[in-house]
Design a protein that fits this description.
alpha/beta; Rossmann fold; seven-stranded mixed β-sheet
C-alpha cells in the first residue's frame, strides 16, 4: 500500500525574508531602478520611488512603507507587458541585487542547503523577483506577492494579499503541508518585527540586522541575533 505524505518522514526548511535580511534595502526598488533605465516610467516617478527607498533604509520596514513601495511599484508597472518585465529579471539580479546581497546571510542560506534542508525566500516583493534570487543563489524557491495579469498585461493589481506579516505565516504553513515540512524543526530569519508571525511559526527563529522592536523581542525570547550592519561598519573604519 503506497505511503501518504503523512506517513513519510518530515523534512526541515529554512525561511528567509529578503529586504534588509538577505540584501540591503528594497528589492522592489532595485527592480524599479532597472525598469526606469529601460524607460518604463519617468524621472519624477522614479525619484518619488527613490525617496520611499531612502525612508525604508533609514527607518526599517513598517507596514506603511511596504504598502507605499508596493502601491508605487504597482502603479508604475500597470499596463506593461508581463514578458517585458520578466525579461529584466536577470539584468536586475546581476547589476542591482547581487551587489547588495549580505554575504553572511547568503552563506547561512547555503549552509542550510548543504545540510539537506529546503531554503525558501519569503517576501512582500513580487514572486518573480523572489524566484530569480532563489534560483541564482541555488536555493529551493521563493514565495512572494502575486501580481495580476490579463492577456499578458500587468493590471497593477494583486492576486490575494501582499505577502507580509500574518500572510507570510499563512504561506509557509500552506507550503509545509504541501511539502511535508516540520515547522517545529525549521528555521526563519528576518530583520523586522512585522515578521513575528513568520518567526514564531518555526522552532528556530533568528533575528538578522533587527529593527529596535524585533531586537527587544528577540532578546526577551533568547533568540540568536545577527547584526551584519555593525560588522560592516567596523570593517570600514
Amino acid at each position: 500500500m503506497p505511503k501518504t505524505p503523512n506517513d513519510l518522514p518530515k523534512i526541515e526548511a529554512a525561511f528567509f525574508d529578503v529586504d534588509n535580511t538577505i540584501l540591503r534595502g528594497s528589492s522592489s526598488f532595485l527592480f524599479g531602478k532597472a525598469a526606469f533605465k529601460k524607460g518604463f516610467f519617468n524621472r519624477t516617478d522614479f525619484w518619488r520611488f527613490a525617496w520611499q527607498q531612502a525612508r525604508f533604509i533609514a527607518r526599517g520596514e513598517t507596514l506603511n512603507t511596504v504598502d507605499e513601495i508596493r502601491d508605487r511599484a504597482l502603479g508604475l508597472i500597470e499596463g506593461h507587458k508581463a514578458n517585458e518585465l520578466a525579461a529584466l529579471t536577470d539584468e536586475v539580479y546581476e547589476n542591482y541585487i547581487a551587489p547588495k546581497l549580505w554575504p553572511e546571510t547568503v552563506r547561512l542560506a547555503r549552509e542550510h542547503i548543504a545540510a539537506g534542508r529546503e531554503v525558501w525566500l519569503v517576501t512582500a516583493t513580487p514572486k518573480e523577483i523572489a524566484d530569480v534570487i532563489a534560483h541564482r543563489l541555488g536555493l529551493t524557491g521563493g514565495l512572494g506577492t502575486l501580481v495580476e495579469r490579463k492577456d499578458g498585461i500587468l493590471t497593477g493589481k494583486l492576486v490575494g494579499e501582499t505577502l507580509h506579516g500574518k500572510h507570510k505565516r499563512k504561506a509557509i504553513k500552506a507550503l509545509a503541508k504541501e511539502r511535508n515540512i516540520s515547522l517545529k524543526r525549521s528555521y526563519a530569519y528576518s530583520d523586522s518585527v512585522n515578521d513575528l508571525p513568520l518567526l514564531t511559526a518555526v522552532g528556530h527563529a533568528i533575528a538578522v540586522n533587527p529593527d529596535a522592536a524585533l531586537k527587544r523581542y528577540a532578546t526577551a525570547a533568547e533568540w540568536p541575533i545577527l547584526d551584519f550592519k555593525k560588522r560592516e561598519l567596523r570593517a570600514n573604519k
